[in-house]
Design a protein that fits this description.
226 residues; mainly alpha; two-stranded antiparallel sheet; 10 helices; 4% strand; elongated
């Protein structure tokens, strides 16, 4: 049965219901392919044009449904960063990566929706605005803070941060897929080893920063930081 027409002021509730429906369908289907505005409207019990009042297209719809999960992860990373004393940028970076691992372990359903569900193809110029930038932006800022404090990098800053993020995702995904119950300390140790490979432990007067690469230039042109 169709949902009754929304009264004035009920638009926010409809939007929330739409996003909840998208999350359910993505979790059930594991991909965006079957997800259409019409399918979401049917799940909520409204006409498809009602969805377009809040979301311009499917990409915007999927991103909005996942944005709160990326923000939850980013919040956990910010809290961990703030708990480390000022003047220890590398310690702050380590705190962020530990928080990343802990979030994935404690919220496996959320994490799989964020990263394992196939999402709509990204149009040129739009990829840099993906809600995941709430997470990647923190890692980029932390890596740059380490460089500013004298810690040498194995890769240019953006590339180093992206490699760190990709490595963290790979490690936690393997843990979620292959290990039923893992010791958090083991994953922390692996994550810290990844940081060691990218950011030198000791600060020096003249830290090494590798020259800009084509990948670094592409990231600089694509990624949008808030």
């Amino acid at each position: 049965m169709d949902r009754p027409r929304s009264r004035r002021g009920e638009g926010d509730q409809l939007k929330a219901d739409v996003l909840a429906a998208v999350n359910r369908l993505l979790a059930e289907w594991g991909s965006h392919e079957k997800l259409t505005m019409r399918a979401v409207a049917k799940e909520v019990g409204v006409a498809a044009p009602s969805i377009y009042l809040h979301f311009a297209d499917k990409t915007e719809l999927v991103w909005a449904a996942l944005a709160d999960k990326y923000e939850q992860l980013a919040h956990a990373m910010r809290v961990a960063d703030a708990a480390v004393a000022a003047g220890d940028p590398r310690g702050k970076l380590l705190a962020q990566v530990r928080a990343y691992c802990r979030f994935a372990q404690e919220n496996p359903g959320h994490y799989r929706l964020m990263y394992d569900v196939r999402q709509p193809a990204l149009e040129p110029g739009r990829a840099g605005r993906h809600p995941a930038r709430a997470v990647s932006g923190l890692l980029r800022a932390a890596v740059n803070a380490c460089l500013d404090a004298g810690h040498s990098l194995a890769l240019p800053p953006r590339q180093a941060a992206h490699t760190l993020w990709a490595g963290l995702h790979g490690m936690v995904s393997l843990q979620l897929s292959l290990v039923a119950s893992a010791d958090p300390g083991t994953l922390d140790g692996m994550a810290e080893g990844l940081v060691d490979a990218l950011v030198a432990r000791e600060a020096v007067a003249e830290p090494v920063c590798p020259p800009e690469t084509a990948i670094e230039r592409l990231m600089a042109a694509t990624i949008v930081d808030d």
